[in-house]
Amino acid sequence: MEHKLTIALIFLAAFYLAGATSSTTINPSSSFIKSSCATATYPALCEQSLSPFAKTIQTSPAQLARTALAVSLKRSQSTQAYLNKLKKVNGLKPRERSAIGDCLEEVNDSLDRVSKSIKELKNCDGVKGQEFIWHMSNVQTWVSSALTDENTCMDGFGGKAMEGRVKSSVRSHITSVAHVTSNALALVNNFAQKH
Fold first, then answer.
1. 3-state helix, strand, coil in the chain (%, to 5)
2. What is the rounded average pLDDT for all residues in the chain?
3. Cys staple from 117: which of 47, 59, 142, 182, with CB 3.0 to 4.6 Å?
4. PANTHER family of this UniProt entry (predicted)?
């Protein structure tokens, strides 16, 4: 009986180690995302937000930049929807409602710029030299402007009178968008330099 238990334990240990070894095998796309995200402003967030798209990204810097912009666009759309709902909530102070409206305008501008950047990045496919530089310059300018819009959003919430749950909630959403947009800008810049 003791002999059978020993064999079973050895078998289980071998099975466990084999499983652990195969799960630690480094996937080239995951490794590529991790090393690329190391240069981003928020590396952990970059890796976490882009890893689900590893099969699409593979080891393509262009696809990595596109995906990072798509993540930024998705977060911007989510924040836009949130602000639209928040603006209609009863009990808001007039200044809060006004600040939310101003913030929503900034997020709308940001969304527009990120959308343009995604389309413009597609124009970089198959072009070289000055044409590539021109398209990439547009992408970089629009993503940078989108980031400025997102950061400007919180300006209307300045002062002690605006402290509270509304400001905290808006800041949380805007920070999330700004961080993924900042990461997208870093990855776009890396792609531009490596091309």
1. 85, 0, 15
2. 86
3. 142
4. PECTINESTERASE INHIBITOR 7, PECTINESTERASE INHIBITOR-LIKE
